[in-house]
Design goal:
Pfam family, one (chains A, B): FAD_binding_4
Family (chains A, B): Belongs to the FAD-binding oxidoreductase/transferase type 4 family.
Organism (chains A, B): Candidatus Methanodesulfokora washburnensis
Largest sheet of chain A: 8 strands, antiparallel
CATH topology of the largest domain in chain A: Uridine Diphospho-n-acetylenolpyruvylglucosamine Reductase, domain 3
Cofactor (chains A, B): FAD
CATH class of the largest domain in chain A: Alpha Beta
Protein name (chains A, B): FAD-binding protein
Shape of chain A: globular
Number of domains of chain A: 4
Distance between the termini of chain A: 24 Å
Oligomer: homodimer
Chain lengths: 475, 475
């Protein structure tokens, strides 16, 4: 490997002066993620084209240089930070929407485009890209693809694996080979599905330089309801009844009573209601709004909801703050974590966990997760996408508090085991990164499918024979 | 490799007497598919459990025996027939629905269960599995997974790749390793997505022994319309307007005028209407049926539809025969092909082609496909899923008519080139099999992505190092 100085010089030759940054402060900024994982890059580069990325990967291959592709680094499992030394590729300057068609229902964008930009752009046409991770305002197309992101509409629209029609990627090989996979059509059956192998691969197989995403019309109207239940079982039974009555649910979210109380308090929200909170949206034309809302209320009331807030439209739902608690419990947790520090000079470290269980197991799961938190004596908020069974417990500790950190880590281990025991999964939409490697093994072992890991490692070698792409992640 | 006699003896020991069939007539029956591809197996086996499949694959691996997994063999690209000698695995006896939950929205079934059985079973609960290939009555779960099947609801629900939550598969290795991948939840992010690598792999990577599929509620109501257009451009413009007006289309099918005429005639259908036919279904609650139907009619009329048939419900649509032409044009083509034979002792060979183009290119594509058929002087019917751009030209020739066969093959080559030129794909939901190998190469070359094929071949070697699983397919 050439010296750091030579590498910087070479990179400037390949990418241009202003595309290479080796200032310590800047490099450190790009070596951190949203939680606290921090790595050790020697430079950050800002390519502007696929051919620059190709030249970069070819150079990296020939010189055994490690490469860390990065979007907004808003993932929270340590998958976007440089685990060892190497070059961070930032896609800040590959941020153009290149093409779109509402007739053909796709949008093509560079990896640095943020999901929120896509949706602001499409909203003018009445269309949307329905994968909406909580980080939607910062998350980029490339990052969402690599982390296999999901969101509130997972039950209806799945996750990124269900939303990518075409990819342009660059391989970390001698030539920096560019591959164009898939296309613009929903149906595409040309050999093995390499697109979905790359979706969720956490930047370890290839570098995404362009993506074509499937878009859908925005619903004409949604009716929305928030209901509060003294008992978690009653809330879960309400969800069971919704499914039995064949509601085609658009959004189905929940928070447990402790989380509602703490979030309302921390963020000084106006919303009234106590207990476990269920939020349901159904997309129906205005003519059917009343009937649908009545039917929803009936389900809530017959399952012992203590109070109900209803909204005939999304606008009314926003005015009444129906989604505020759900959106707010992560920021509220950060505030609670910050305020609870013993030493105000330390950082609060906040973990968002990400298991799934079959929705029918959600009440049991939440009860057991609460017991776990009590057992370890750690504070926790939790809510999630109850429609698709995805639960996000949020936990925190103060930087330097090794005892608490250890407790949080043991909690997470038990949480993953619980998910497996209930027929669920250790990671739903955040991925493995550096924090869930143990979970990956646990789940494969529970399924007696350890050989799947060998297969994954061999696939990695096909795409990245020198192991230079985002090393240290997944296993 | 042991002798045929020894193989049969060994198989009987492993699977039981009545699970192994080497009668010539039976073996030949299982060596054919729905078109006319015929292979050369030495036996057919009927396992009843995963452990039997595992023992079988282990035996096959140790004895270099080729294995051809087979569902209903209703695929039409030659992917299910034994290309060389070897053993056909029929899943006729692994045909149980094992578990399901409308709350958790999944159904788990053995590979031999037919899709129609799944849907008859789910209909009682008001749910459905929305991937509905034309062969839905015979197509099996295992076959649909391996061929990556699609159908009329592709625009809304995608294809099999969007519908499989979990898989149990057996690998063709020393031990016949059983892998359990994925699970029951929509969200699942545990390492690389091996499930979607196997979906659409045409039985070349692993043998599916169980699948968990994502199910959805049946719509409460659909409104349906069939409109006839003198001009193809007008029909296409109507579709453009539907998308612009943000209809959330449930089904969007079409047939060109020649096909409508020939199908109505061949099947003696009652439906009245001449010209290019567009069929649209939108799922809306009853309260919004009138407004939706009016809006749909408005779009049709303003784009010069000459006649319109409308139905306020699916039942009414069936009574009025709205879908009969669409469903009938393949059987009608078979009848036309049979009746047009010069020698009644020969078989009519009917090909269903399967390209996609972006829907905005559909009118141009159909016009050019008609020109191609004229150029080669071959008869052709055609229709397709205009909502997602998937076009199915149907062509035929008489067995033994080498000149016509050659013309059909040259037509197909030009058709695939046309799809590529219009930004589409050579295969949408049927796959590559033995008939589209050239198309696979053409498309990869057009995208300058030949290396994708090398990657696919290396992936094949990981799963199937001896190349014993469905050899001769894909490349």
């Amino acid at each position: 490997m050439p010296s750091k100085k030579d590498v910087i010089k070479d990179l400037r030759k390949i990418l241009g002066e202003e595309a290479v940054e080796d200032d310590d402060l800047v490099v450190r900024m790009y070596s951190k993620d949203a939680v606290y994982f921090e790595g050790n890059a020697i430079a950050v580069v800002f390519p502007t084209s696929t051919s620059q990325v190709s030249a970069l990967l070819s150079y990296a291959y020939r010189n055994d240089l490690r490469i860390y592709p990065q979007g907004s680094a808003s993932e929270i499992v340590g998958s976007s930070t440089p685990a060892e030394d190497g070059i961070v590729i930032s896609f800040n300057r590959m941020n153009k929407i290149k093409q779109y068609s509402t007739v053909d229902m796709y949008i093509t964008a560079e990896p640095g485009v943020r999901l929120v930009e896509i949706n602001e752009f499409l909203a003018k046409e009445g269309y949307t890209f329905p994968i909406d991770p909580a980080s939607v305002k910062s998350a980029t197309v490339g990052g969402a693809i690599n982390s296999g992101a999901g969101g509130m509409m997972g039950l209806r629209y799945g996750t990124m694996k269900d939303a990518v029609l075409g990819l342009e990627v660059v391989l970390p090989d001698e030539k920096g080979t560019v591959l164009r996979l898939g296309g613009r059509t929903t149906k595409h059956r040309v050999g093995y599905d390499l697109i979905r192998l790359i979706v969720g691969s956490e930047g370890t197989l290839a570098v995404v330089t362009e993506a074509t995403l499937k878009i859908v019309p925005l619903p004409e109207n949604t009716v929305n309801i928030a209901a509060f239940f003294p008992s978690l079982e009653d809330l879960a039974n309400a969800v069971v009844e919704l499914k039995k009555r064949k509601f085609n649910l658009y959004i189905t979210e929940f928070l447990d009573s402790y989380t509602v109380e703490k979030t309302v308090e921390a963020l000084k929200l106006k919303i009234k209601g106590k207990g476990n909170m269920l939020i349901v949206s159904v997309d129906v034309p205005v003519e059917a709004a009343d009937r649908t809302l009545s039917a929803l209320k009936e389900v809530m009331v017959s399952n012992n909801a203590s109070s109900i807030i209803e909204a005939r439209s999304l606008k009314e739902a926003e005015e009444k703050g129906i989604f505020d608690v759900r959106r707010g419990y992560y920021p509220a947790s950060i505030r609670i974590a910050a305020e609870g520090r013993k030493d105000p000079r330390t950082r609060p470290i906040v973990y968002v966990e990400d298991i799934s269980v079959p929705p029918s197991k959600m009440a049991e799961c939440v009860r057991k997760v609460r017991e776990l938190a009590e057992k370890y004596g750690i504070e926790m908020t939790l809510g999630g996408h109850i429609g698709d069974g995805n639960l996000h417990p949020v936990l925190w500790f103060e930087e330097g508090d090794e005892e608490k950190k250890e407790k949080v880590f043991r909690f997470i281990r038990d949480l993953m085991q619980l998910a497996i025991d209930l027929g669920g999964t250790v990671s739903s939409e955040h991925g493995i990164g550096t924090t869930k490697k143990e979970g990956l093994i646990m789940e494969l072992e529970a399924n007696k499918s350890e050989k799947a890991l060998d297969i994954m490692k061999e696939i990695k070698r096909i795409f990245d024979p020198k192991g230079i792409l985002n090393p240290g992640k997944l296993w």
